[in-house]
Amino acid sequence: MKLNAVELREVALPLVSPFRTSLGTQTVRTALLVRVLSDEGEGWGECAAEDEPTYCPEYLAGAADVIKRFMLPALAPLDLEPAAVGPALRHLRGHPMAKAAVETAVLDCWLRARRTSLAAHLGGVRRRVRVGVSVGITETVDALLDTVDRHLTAGYARIKLKIEPGWDLEPVRAVRETFGAGVMLTVDANTAYQPGDLRHLAKLDAYGLALVEQPFAPDDLHAHAALAARMDTPVCLDESITSARDAAEAIRRGACSIINIKPGRVGGYLEARRIHDLAQANGVPVWCGGMLETGLGRAANLALASLPGFTLPGDISATERYYHRDITRPFVLDGGELPVPAEPGLGVLPEEADLQACTTAVETVSCTF
């Protein structure tokens, strides 16, 4: 498959409500969409980077720049297949989210031409997957309880609470006491704590959590291992895992017993599958994290979550959880589950009117370097 051109499109989708974590508050999701145009058709990918380098070192404008200036010239001369994208870009250090977006677009194009779905290509075994919902930090505990009640009424299979120092034990206690032991409840700190907080975090054991996610800095496996040894609650890693090699080291050191796989963070869906395979071989459950994706990224995440090792509900919420208007057909929650797209490639395409309505910038780059 030969690339003819690549379209880089920035879109801005207002969120249904502000989403606050320990890293900040979002009211609009700005996303970079990558559309490859080839001799076999077209394909779409989505870059998970955010406007600012807070969750990870990448940011949206930088991702667009590195794709245009360095990745496309490396790929343009090649006879491409999806598995060749990663090796062709290996000489470029970092930028996993930009690499993932390009690889996904190539995957989508290549699979559409071969009438194969992404789920089938990755080895998915489910037609529907259980999903959870991530609840941001709210102004009051009462507001948190109202939000959780709304999501449980909608049927979500798991509730994840964002926490930070000063917003942890009390809101978690209130949710558990209000909604009972039958609710699958997890917490996510997004690296907000320090190793000196071990004793405090261990108090979360009282609330029957399914896991505590990424309390410490990404490079501090030692602190995570110490917490895992101290707590009954399983420790899950997110930001610490950027590759299958990272996952192997974290498992070896006892720093986690569960892994959150975000395809953008690890460099794409093929590396995400490698992490899944490694974790499954070591008896470590995995689940698919979310980055407030549009329908394109949501469709691809559902394909990944259909693999057999994804035994915990992921952050792949229904469209209406985040957006009044998305760029694809909406994904609708049914009995705590979402359907895995079965059509070729990602299984969805942008709706032209919706895409145009949220587009803020677009550039087409010729691949005749």
Textual characterization of the structure:
The protein is an alpha/beta fold and 369 residues long. The chain has 14 helices and 13 strands. It has helices at residues 60-75, 82-88, 96-113, 118-122, 141-154, 169-179, 198-202, 221-230, 244-252, 263-266, 269-281, 295-305, 319-322, 352-358, and strands at residues 3-21, 24-38, 41-47, 128-130, 133-135, 159-162, 185-188, 211-213, 235-237, 258-261, 286-288, 337-339, 359-366. A 7-stranded parallel sheet has the order 5-6-7-8-9-10-11. It has a 4-stranded antiparallel sheet with strand order 3-2-1-13. Strands 4-12 form a two-stranded antiparallel ribbon. Helix 8 links the parallel strand 8 and strand 9 (235-237). Helix 2 packs antiparallel against helix 3 (96-113). It starts with a strand and ends with a strand. The mean pLDDT is 96.
**Helical residues, percent:** 25-40%
| Class from helix and strand fractions | alpha/beta
Which blocks of ≥5 consecutive residues have pLDDT under 50?
Answer: none
Helical segment count:
14
| Cα-based radius of gyration, to the nearest Å | 20 Å
Task: Put the structure in a nutshell.
The chain is of the alpha/beta class. It contains 14 helices and 13 strands.
Secondary structure topology:
Layout: E1 3-21, E2 24-38, E3 41-47, H1 60-75, H2 82-88, H3 96-113, H4 118-122, E4 128-130, E5 133-135, H5 141-154, E6 159-162, H6 169-179, E7 185-188, H7 198-202, E8 211-213, H8 221-230, E9 235-237, H9 244-252, E10 258-261, H10 263-266, H11 269-281, E11 286-288, H12 295-305, H13 319-322, E12 337-339, H14 352-358, E13 359-366
Parallel strand pairs: 5-6, 6-7, 7-8, 8-9, 9-10, 10-11
Antiparallel strand pairs: 1-2, 1-13, 2-3, 4-12
